[in-house]
Structures are given as C-alpha cells and as structure tokens.
C-alpha cells in the first residue's frame, strides 16, 4: 500500500517484533485503523536481526511465547528447552500468518521522525522512503535492545577483512572455516557465539574487557509427552507468565543465602548448576540486595570456572569480580570449556586496551593480532537508544532526547508514557520492568494496558492523554529509590547506561517487581487514569 494513502490513521506502530505484532492484532480487533512500520524485510524484531551463530533465547520456550491465545499455544510445538533464533523467528512468522497481520505492516521502512502537531492533535511520522503518515496515536514497539553499539574504534574503515555486529547479522551464513577470527565482547551474545565460532574457525581470539559469570543452559530436546503436558496446563503456564515476578516459570525461593550452612548451600548450588538454566539465580532471595549473600553465589561460580578451565592463567583472566546478577545473567553452552581448545586464545583488553583496528587485524597496547574476521559482540545502547534513533518531538517541538538528557534524567510515568508527548506510548519503555521480566509477559501486559486505555478514551470522547509532571516525577523517583536499595547500581552495565560513552547514568528498569507493577498499572486504569491529564 502506498503510504500517501494512509494519512489520518488512528495509530502508527513502530516495529514488527513481539510488541508490534501483538499491538497490531489488538488494535485491529478493537477497530482502530493501524499501520506498522518495520525496518527489516520480515517480522521478528530482535529475532530478525540477531542471526549470529549460537543465537538462542535463555528463557524456556514454553514461556517464551504469547499467552493471549490458547489456540495459538495449542497449535505451536517448541522443540527444545531453549529455542534457537530460527525457531523463534518461525514462531513469529506463524503468528503473523495466523492473525493475518502482514497486510497492515510496511516492511523495509524505518520511522525516522515523529512530531506531535498540537493544533491538529496528530502525530506526523516521517519514513525513510521520503513519505510521511499521520495518526492520532504513536506507539513504539522499538524494544529495549535494538540499537546496536559499535564502539568507535579508530581504523575500522581500513580493515581489509570482514566484520559483523551480532545484532545486525547478515541473512547468509558467514563462513568461519579456517579463518582467523576475533570476537570483541563477552556479554550474552559473545558467550553464545564464541563456542560455536570456535568449532569452525582456524583460530579464535576473544577480546574480553569484563569477565562474566555464566551458568550452563543444559539445553535439550523436549520430550513430546512434556509438551503435551504443558498444553494441558495452559491455564497454569499463563498464570505463571502473568502473575509472577519472573514471568518465566521460575519461583524465587523465599530464603536468604545466609540462612543455610556453607555445606547445605553448596549442595543446593551444585544441584541447580547440574539442572542448568536460571535456577541458580532464584535459589535464594537476597543475592541482589545483600553483599555477603552475593559473595556466596559469586564464589561458587568462580570455583566452577577454576574447575572447568585447565590453564590456570586463562582461568584467572576469566574470573569475574562484580556482584553476580548485577549485569544480565547469562546461560551458556560450553563457554568456559571453549578456552580449553587449542585454537582459542583469550586476551584481556582491560589490562591491554584495544588501540585501533588495523588493515590486517586489531592492535592492543601489547601488539597486533592478525584477523580475517572481526565479530563485534559489543551490545546495545539499551532502553533509550532505540527511541533516540528517531527524532521524536512532543509539545512545543521539544525532542524526547533533549527532555531526557536534561539533568541526566529519564522521566516516564510507569515506563508507558512521558509528559509533553500526548498520545505517545512505549511498549516496555524505560522505567518499566521490561528486560527483568520474561519479555513476552512484559509486552502482553503493556499492550493490554494500552488497548484498554485507548478504548476508554474513545468511549469517553477524550482527544489527548499525557502524564502529569508530578506523576512522572514521583514514578521516576520511586524507580531510582528502588534501584538504589539494590546491588545493581554498584556495577557498570547497559542497565545503567554505563556502556555508552557520554550517556547519562540512571537505572532504566523498574525493579519493584512485575506483580506489584501490574497491580499499580491496573489501579491507574481503574481510577480513570490517575496521574494522567485527559483533555
Ligand atoms: O551485550 P552486552 P550483548 N571494547 O552489553 C564488551 C540480551 N541478549 O549483546 O562488560 C571492548 O551484555 C562489553 O564489555 P564490558 C540480554 O539482555 C539476550 O552481549 O562493558 N569490549 C561486553 O563484554 C543481554 O544482556 C540473549 O566491559 C567492549 C560486551 O562487549 C543484552 O541483550 C542473547 C567494548 C557487550 O555485552 C545485551 O547482550 C543476546 C569496547 N569498546 C543478548 N564495548 C539471550 O536471550 C563493549 N564491550 C540469550
């Protein structure tokens, strides 16, 4: 459809990932004329772009899906405990087909600007094909981790080999066979890619700045009997997704790590380590609020690294020293074991920083490493980055970036909306629980809240909604206070914006719990949208 023909829509939605697809489905069901713009040439969002070797979700597949449609849940069969990227992409394509979503999605089209016109009470949305559309509501499904961070290394343009970022991986297979490969970064993406690349490459050099704690995933194929059972238990799965703090079936044991003897604790840690997955993170309830409790689990993982990695010097370089869990916990498949391979070298770039990329490889202060391929597993400008990629302007032409950079302070109400930007909503926006909950759970809760809100406004004949300054300042203050009471803020991570040079620091995720948060959102809706101005 030509975009010139779709002016004066009810809603423009950005992105056709988990958020945009469900938002579109619900908006259409509720009778709102809607158009989704998606930069990729297919659905999937992060799962469209993250095609790097080893890309896999670290939430168990039976929870990493939508719960709004029992029919969909009954129809889809996950094959393994942790779904890989192709399987998740197939699932989202299946969803798009089942609900006939593609006819309202314009692919290969990036939203470059969205300006609110106060006189007309419309959002003017500019697209990268030179056209524009207007709509009453603008909803971002840009996600939390869609703005790749490519560090500004000197000399990258001179590199004669090939280079890739994990978050913008090409569609065709990258051939590592016999090649000298360098991977920069050891977060979730690097930890997944490194063991797979190592098996194919001639030689792999890993450039590590911060060592990471990772836990074995112990992925395995699902037994069909297990899948049958989960389908029979759909109502319970849905409850676990929507009414628990993790949203992913994990129950945090309500007991302090310090209340057990060291022997008992070790026994529990060994058991959950053997089971694999995030059971370790939920084995006690105070890892993230009590330093001593955190030492118990951090020490345990360090002991495992020393056990697994044969070369003591390499093992020493791999030992993390931040509080476990304050960077995003990681699941791996043979990560530490990979350093026992003959064709893998670990370089500590905190000790010997990278100076530049050269035509033939990469130079640290210790010397040059010759490489044919460089993989940047260097992460994302999280939470605000995807929104700042566009020029979003609210009342009086004020840009979202200017607003949030003023006083180094993101300010939102419930992470859903921000004052001076009427009729603009963010799905899993900054200061909502987002990435600290199972993402499909967080997304469904936001989409359903937004749709209820739009229906309410339509019914009441309200033209515009935006948070009051008081409500958003109180919410942002509450978010900061909750974060300050935890160990999260003691660690530099993408959660705090510390991974991006010059980015204002603030904890961008709500840590008060998904259950409490959902309750608060429901109360706001039930009160007729307390904390919002309706006009
Ligand atoms: O990114 P990251 P990611 N020089 O920011 C290093 C989700 N996710 O793409 O820690 C050298 O975690 C950086 O070092 P340091 C998940 O939420 C989920 O891996 O800043 N190194 C770090 O090692 C995750 O948390 C899944 O010192 C540099 C790495 O690059 C989030 O996405 C899979 C550098 C970046 O790690 C992001 O994960 C993948 C520099 N200049 C992602 N700049 C699953 O579901 C950065 N680094 C499994």
Q: What portion of the residues fall into strands of 2 or more residues?
A: 15-25%
Number of strands: 20
List low-confidence stretches.
1-5
Hetero groups? 3-acetylpyridine adenine dinucleotide
Number of helices: 16
SSE-based structural type: alpha/beta
What distance lies between the first and last C-alpha atoms, to the nearest angstrom?
33 Å
Rg: 23 Å
Strand count, sense and closure of the main sheet?
8 strands, mixed
The average pLDDT is: 96
Principal-axes geometry comes out as globular
Percent range for helical residues? 25-40%
Outline the structure in words.
This protein has 535 residues and is an alpha/beta fold. The chain is built from 16 helices and 20 strands. The protein has helices at 18-29, 46-49, 70-75, 85-98, 188-200, 224-232, 234-243, 262-275, 291-308, 312-317, 335-338, 385-388, 400-405, 439-460, 469-484, 514-526, and strands at residues 9-14, 34-37, 105-106, 111-117, 122-127, 132-140, 162-165, 180-184, 203-208, 214-216, 330-332, 344-348, 354-358, 361-364, 367-370, 373-376, 391-393, 424-426, 465-467, 532-534. The strands form five sheets. Strands 1, 2, 3, 4, 5, 6, 17 and 18 form an eight-stranded mixed beta sheet that branches. A hairpin with a 2-residue loop joins β13 (354-358) and β14 (361-364). α1 packs parallel to α14 and α14 (439-460) runs parallel beside α16. The longest helix is centred in the last third of the chain and has 22 residues, at 439-460. The two termini are 33 Å apart. Mean pLDDT is 96; it is low at 1-5. The site of 3-acetylpyridine adenine dinucleotide has 26 residues, from α5. Keywords: FAD, Flavoprotein, Monooxygenase, NADP, Oxidoreductase. Belongs to the FAD-binding monooxygenase family. This is NAD(P)/FAD-dependent oxidoreductase. One of its GO terms (molecular function) is NADP binding. InterPro entries: FAD-binding_Monooxygenases, FAD/NAD-bd_sf, Flavin_mOase-like.
């Amino acid at each position: 459809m030509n975009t010139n023909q779709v002016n004066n829509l009810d809603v423009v939605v950005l992105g056709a990932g988990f958020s945009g697809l469900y938002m579109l489905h619900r908006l259409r069901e509720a009778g709102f004329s809607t158009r989704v713009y998606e930069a990729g040439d297919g659905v999937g969002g992060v799962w469209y772009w993250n095609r790097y070797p080893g890309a896999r979700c670290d939430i168990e597949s039976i929870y990493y899906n939508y719960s709004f449609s029992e029919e969909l849940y009954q129809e889809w069969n996950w094959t393994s405990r942790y779904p890989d990227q192709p399987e998740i992409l197939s699932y989202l394509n299946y969803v798009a087909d089942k609900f006939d979503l593609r006819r309202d999605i314009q692919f290969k089209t990036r939203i470059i600007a969205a300006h609110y016109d106060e006189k007309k009470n419309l959002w003017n949305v500019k697209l990268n094909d030179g056209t524009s559309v207007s709509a009453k509501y603008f909803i971002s499904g840009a996600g939390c981790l869609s703005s790749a961070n490519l560090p500004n290394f000197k000399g990258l343009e001179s590199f004669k080999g090939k280079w890739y970022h994990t978050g913008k991986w090409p569609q065709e297979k990258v051939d590592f066979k016999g090649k000298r490969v360098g991977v920069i970064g050891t977060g979730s993406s690097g930890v997944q890619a490194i063991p797979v690349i190592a098996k194919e490459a001639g030689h792999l050099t890993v450039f590590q700045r911060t060592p990471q704690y990772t836990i074995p995933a112990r992925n395995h194929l699902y037994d069909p009997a297990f899948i049958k059972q989960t389908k029979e238990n759909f109502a319970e799965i849905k409850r676990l997704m929507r009414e628990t703090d993790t949203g992913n079936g994990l129950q945090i044991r309500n007991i302090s790590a310090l209340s057990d003897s060291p022997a008992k604790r070790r026994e529990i840690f060994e058991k959950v380590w053997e089971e694999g997955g995030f059971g370790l993170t939920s084995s006690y309830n105070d890892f993230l609020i009590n330093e001593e409790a955190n030492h118990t689990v951090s020490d345990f993982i360090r002991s495992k690294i020393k056990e697994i990695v044969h070369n003591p010097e390499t093992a020493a370089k791999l030992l993390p020293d931040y509080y476990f869990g304050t960077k995003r916990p990681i699941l791996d498949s043979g990560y530490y074991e990979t350093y026992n391979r003959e064709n893998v070298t670990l370089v500590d770039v905190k000790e010997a920083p990278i100076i530049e990329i050269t035509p033939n490889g990469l130079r640290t202060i210790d010397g040059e490493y010759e490489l044919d391929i460089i993989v940047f597993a260097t992460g994302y400008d999280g939470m605000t980055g995807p929104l700042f990629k566009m020029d979003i302007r609210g009342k009086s032409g004020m840009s979202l970036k200017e607003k949030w950079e003023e006083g180094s302070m993101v300010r939102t109400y419930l992470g859903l909306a921000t004052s001076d930007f009427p009729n603009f909503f963010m799905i899993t926006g900054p200061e909502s629980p987002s990435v600290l909950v199972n993402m499909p759970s967080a997304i469904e809760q936001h989409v359903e809240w937004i749709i209820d809100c739009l229906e309410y406004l339509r019914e009441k004949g309200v033209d515009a909604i935006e948070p009051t300054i008081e409500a958003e300042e109180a919410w942002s203050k509450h978010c900061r206070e909750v974060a300050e009471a935890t160990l999260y803020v003691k660690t530099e991570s993408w959660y705090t914006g510390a991974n991006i040079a010059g980015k204002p620091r603030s904890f961008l995720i709500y840590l008060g719990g998904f259950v409490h948060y959902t309750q608060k959102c429901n109360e706001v809706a039930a009160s007729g949208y307390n904390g919002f101005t309706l006009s």
